[in-house]
Amino acid sequence: MAARVLAQLIVAGSQIVGKAFMEAYRQAAANAAKNGGHQAAKSGGGGGSKSATADALTRKSGMSVDEAMNILNITKDTDLEKIVKNYQHLYKVNDKAVNGSFYLQSKVVRAKERLEMEWASQGNPMKIEVEVPEPAAPASGASGASGSGPTDATSKTSDPSDAKSTHPR
Q1: Least confident of 7-21, 76-90, 128-142
Q2: In whole angstroms, how large is the CA radius of gyration of the chain?
Q3: CA-based diameter of the chain, in Å?
Q4: pLDDT 10s digits, 38-63
Q5: Where are the alpha helices (DSSP H) in the chain?
Q6: Alpha-carbon gap, residue 159 to 98, rounded angstroms
Q7: Nearest-angstrom CA–CA distance, 62 and 83
């Protein structure tokens, strides 16, 4: 009698698990069909080729065009001068030399690169050419301290504190 109940439990459990797998498969197939699927992107039918290119660029850069425009605080109609101005401002503000965030500065650079990749895919290979000066604070602080040539004990003791205050954290 116990063996019969155990067998019924195993059969019922396997039916439940089987139904769950089938439902998950149907859901995945529906999502793939809704999003175009791999085959639809490969066939290049209609607008699929264009969106496949955009999807490939998004996967390559890890950032969508919308995200890049949000980071740089621009819209699709923004002129190049405003894009360059926003890029330079965000790059300088997030510089480590002024206690900025290297992570945010990297996001700004990646947003610029993503927009350049998008323009190149549209047949308009524009580059946002900007001259952002490299931070010279650590190099000038070190050369200033050694170039001043401390001559007495009081200036020697002030050098380490100066060096500590000039290094970004």
Answers
A1: 128-142
A2: 29
A3: 100
A4: 554 444 444 456 677 777 878 887 88
A5: 2-34, 37-43, 48-61, 65-72, 80-93, 102-121, 137-148, 153-166
A6: 21
A7: 20
